[in-house]
Fold this sequence. Notes:
The protein folds into two domains: about 1-250 and about 455-475, Aldehyde Dehydrogenase, Chain A, domain 1 (3-Layer(aba) Sandwich), CATH 3.40.605.10; about 255-435, Aldehyde Dehydrogenase, Chain A, domain 2, CATH 3.40.309. About 40% of the residues lie in helices and about 20% in strands. It has helices at about 40-60, 60-80, 80-90, 95-115, 155-165, 180-190, 205-215, 230-240, 265-275, 295-305, 325-340, 375-380, 395-400, 415-425, 465, and strands at about 1-5, 5-10, 10-15, 20-25, 30-35, 125, 130-140, 140-145, 170-175, 200, 220-225, 245-250, 255, 285-290, 345-350, 355, 360, 365-370, 385-390, 410-415, 435, 470-475.
Amino acid sequence: MQExxxxxxGEWVESSSGxxxxxxxxxxxxxxAKLQKASEEDVERAADSAQDAFEKWSSTPAPARGKIxxxxxxxxxxxxxELARLMTIEMGKILKESRGDVQEAIDIxxxxxxxxxxxxxxxxxxxxxxxxxxxxxRPIGVVGLITPWNxxxxxxxxxxxxxxxxxxxxxxxxxSDTPLLSIELVKILSEAGLPKGVLxxxxxxxxxxxxxxxxxxxIRAISFTGSVETGRWVQGEAGKGMxxxxxxxxxxxxxxxxxxxxxxxxxDGVIWGAFGTxxxxxxxxxxxxxxxxxxxxxxxxxxxRTRQLRLGSGLDDATDVGPVVNNSQLQKxxxxxxxxxxxxxxxxxxxxxxxxxxxxxxxxxxxTDVTPDMRIAREEIFxxxxxxxxxxxxxxxxxxxxxxxxGLSSSxxxxxxxxxxxxxxxxxxGITYINAPPIGAEIHLPFGGVKATGNGTRxxxxxxxxxxxxxxTVYFDYSGKLQKAQIDVA
Length: 490
Ligand code: NAD
């Protein structure tokens, strides 16, 4: 079994704590790797090395930084299949979804590389003659990146690539359930020519290593993706140090199905949205709000189709739904099934831990008769559990959709253009899909949510660069005399 190290100042080093942890495959429970438990001292060294590398990296022309990212994108492309297999073994999602995850990393890497020739500012007229006004983008400095386990390569790439192209240097901590893809990403960037110290990787416990990143004085900004609970803590602690913080947190994403929808397309979308990645997407469909006129037929078809999903190893082409990531997630899902029953929802499919393999498998599960006050309708379960809810009108459906603390993704199935636009206008979410499930973001559009899902920042698209740059405003007076704004104006 391979043991992996920390990457600090361009070298693979052991943790100063001397401690390690195990990486376990959730389908088979095999230990697949050993990793370092970084100490606070290791985080300090990583931040020092990022600080030392900053001057040179931030002065490197952005198109030259882009060339390294282009090389990395091509290497990711060449290794796509191998990386996807590693992801399925480490995290459990089925191979075709792992390929999608790797593809998303490839896409954001090319996209960020191209941004090296843009990093756009603005120009605007001055109110005074012989004066020129513009904005330029500057890197923030050393940034700390903390990622979850559900998109083991895509989310790290969504953060690392825009941070690097913008001229920042990085201390990066991946989730302990899925560090291997991040290690491969670091290797690829290093091989593609990234100078030493620019990207540093520390593995280990969130409460220790993540916390040390959040508190480190040299780190000027934190980009965090994970749960609301941790995000709230990160925001508070980083705020004390006056750091910039960007948060991408949980969701309780609704799908509205109106009586004028194409039912078969809606069912395809709901099944993919709810049970894809075993329900472990921040954008997963966890509530389906169906117009009461079509509810009985919809329900019957949905249950019939979901029953056909096959559980198993993600490496097996016949598998539709892989394992959940670890035992604590498995127990959490089982607990929510009990809560759903106690609250009076009707369990009509699944609801049990099963063992097609030794690992952590949970049956695709559907509850009906779910009402907005129930906990399964309000709290993020992050597993293959779907709540079916009833609405008598579009207004009621939107009201139910908005009745949670989250606001990440959303979707509506309807044949009526007015209903679609009404949903775009009224659903409180960062993303709304029309006639498509709430999962499947494309990297060249902004991604993020409202309410407790975040703090207003967006990743990907043009907003990816905003997250990792400061704007400097420049006034260039070539009049050869003192001109006073607001006073010497004609
Ligand atoms: P988590 O909050 O437990 O952990 C996320 C990361 O934070 C991990 O790397 C973890 O080690 C680290 N961490 C834990 N405690 C920390 C602390 N005190 N200080 C700093 N870092 C700490 O979340 P998770 O279980 O890994 O991921 C699942 C959650 O992520 C779900 O809520 C899901 O909705 C959310 N998520 C959101 C998005 C999005 O873009 N909005 C995308 C994917 C996942």
